UniProtKB/TrEMBL annotation:
Species name: Siminovitchia thermophila
GO molecular function, one term: DNA binding
Region of interest (Disordered), ranges: 1-39
Protein name: DNA-binding XRE family transcriptional regulator
Keyword terms of this UniProt record: DNA-binding
PROSITE patterns for the chain: HTH_CROC1 (PS50943)
Amino acid sequence: MAKETVRKNAMKRRAIRKEKKPVFKVSKPKRGQAKQKQISDQATFVIPDELRDVPYQMVEDGLFQVFENGRIFRHTPRQSSECIVHDSNGYKVVSASVDGTQKHFYVHRLLAQAFIPNPEQKPVVSFKDENRGNISLDNLIWETHEERAIKMYKTGKFDPRRHLETCKQCGSGTRNKSGICSKCEYDNLSKEKRKERISERISSYSDIPIDLCTPSQQRVILLLREGLNGAEVAKKLGVSRQAVDSAVKTARRRVQRLSRLEIEKKDRKKNLNQKPDDMSKIKWLRKLNGLTQQDMAELLDITSSSYSQKEREITPFSVSEAIILADFFDETVESLFN
């Protein structure tokens, strides 16, 4: 009985193989002949009887023969056969080898390429009823990525905020790992840069001694030390921006000049601590205090030339002039004119 069962099964398999005739037949090239690349030269594809009246189109450069009812045949230089449809995440797909690489193609997209016009060259094929298994031509439509996103958003299948976290500062949604949205990050960076600029501005004006500046210059510099820029200071004081810049420049020049005079005065005092024998005491005191002959002439209400002659002892000082000079230098008349 076992042998009889094995024999019957073998006969059934042989009968099945005979019934499954190939749709096409490819003859192998004889030795010495060039191998034919085009299947049309070697074999003729026979359309099944049930598909003879069904419209079809060739797509993907002749790789697929797509029938209107959804059946697809794959044609390669070596063979032609009906594609086996697989399910991939709800989509119907077929596969083919392209340049030695196995690739997958969506059935609904092949149908749209074959039978649905696309004059605007839209890139996406969508389902009108959102059912991925319904690949009928009436259910397919060409769309742009934007149109597809809007449609998914309106139907509730896509929520752009589903992966968002709440911003720690403003409470809006963000995908940043830091938990702070891009707008708040930009605002924080701007605030840090502003602080740095204010700090640099304050330090750049801290070297100007206020006590050596005029009142108008002091007002400008004090506002700049508070962190205001030139335009803000000009607006607050009701002057032009050029006036602010000019006040700063003149203040720096004034400080430099007064500092230089102070240094020169110290040097003179250092050099004039001891009166030279060939110099009169009045001249020595005048130079020691950094005064000019014009200053002394104005003090005595005389001309500069008259004072010069009296200091060189060409003409004598009057008694009233001697008293004024003694009071001015905090000396006695006798010590001054000894």
